[in-house]
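When time allows, look over one protein, given below as sequence and tokens. The question is which stretches look regular and which look disordered:
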Amino acid sequence: MFSNNDKISPRQIKRLLIFHLFGVGSLLLPARLAKTGGTAGLWSVFLGMALAAVYLWMLQISCGRMKQDYFFYLQNGWGSLAARIFYICYALVSVFVSGWAVKLLAELVCDHLLEDGEFKTALFLVILLVLYGGIAGMEARARIYEILFWVLAVPLVIMLVLCFRQVQVIRWFPMMPEPAFGSGGWNGLWQGAVQCFMSFLPLTFLLFLKSHEQEEKKTGHVAFLALFVSGGAVAAIYLILLGIFGSRALSQEHYPIITLMGMVKIPGDFVKRLDAVMISVWFFTLYALIAATLYYGAVIARRGLAKDGSDWKEKCGGRWFWAMTALLYAISYAFYQYPQLEQFAGRAFYLAGVPFLVLVPLLSLMICRKQAPKKRTPNGPAQERE
């Protein structure tokens, strides 16, 4: 029997985080790392993982100081108005990231699953699925992805093992920054590390997970496991792609891992379009990220705009998800119609969004004191300690 209390277990949190971190990283990072650092992209992955680990450690300290939720924690140090502004900014970041990911997923479906490449149709179908996932809630999505985890992971591992036969290890070396790539030298290595760190930023949603945690003390442990599993998988995929394509050819690929899936030959050759079958791995991982960003965007926006009182404790209604989904469709379609708008949004996220996601928790550690637990008084109900 399943419970219906909107709580998820540590194992479900770990698998959801792996889906959130692995999809975009494995799909886009290999080509970008080859473009910025050549054969040194592996060190960019490790450096990005180290930055993400420090960031996750900071988030865990913040979560440990919370008594109720992140809003009360921010309100404790910044004040009510600033906390609401921060929440609205978090919601905007969530919905724009979700819009970008929806556009990416719709393009992926058009390129590899639909013969006529009808973007509007693919976008509409993806939006409907995302709306359903948002309304279904956190617990329903966690159950589904707990089941799908090994269904998707085992075939992917088998395919990567089969690909390893084509790897030419000599192409991994010299594993040092090559001036001919990207900005050249160590600057390119650092750019790749920042891109890797950005792919791990869905860890930010741990700040808003408190009301869904079944075992709060284990969340930090499983989050670190998810980070290292996802980062290790991205590093392994990068090495396989680098050993097969070489740094120059890899840097020119759009979705190199999808191209690689189409090159694999299974003994017996009983599957003709293996890339179309394996695209399900990235369909579900991207969908997990989109559904999570939509869900958190709606919940965070409602929390930030809620009136003072107890109404914020009520479950986020369907109208919030409908409104967010409509905005999501408009953003993703605008990104498709106007590529320069997508580039501007990406630049804004790099220059403003990433510093916001990093600095707010960091500064809050210095401004917001730890919230004391409630204590019972002899003549009345539990009261907060001063």
Remarks:
- The radius of gyration is 22 Å.
- Confidence is low (pLDDT under 50) at residues 380-386.
- Residues 48 and 194 are 6 Å apart (CA to CA).
- The longest helix spans residues 80-112.
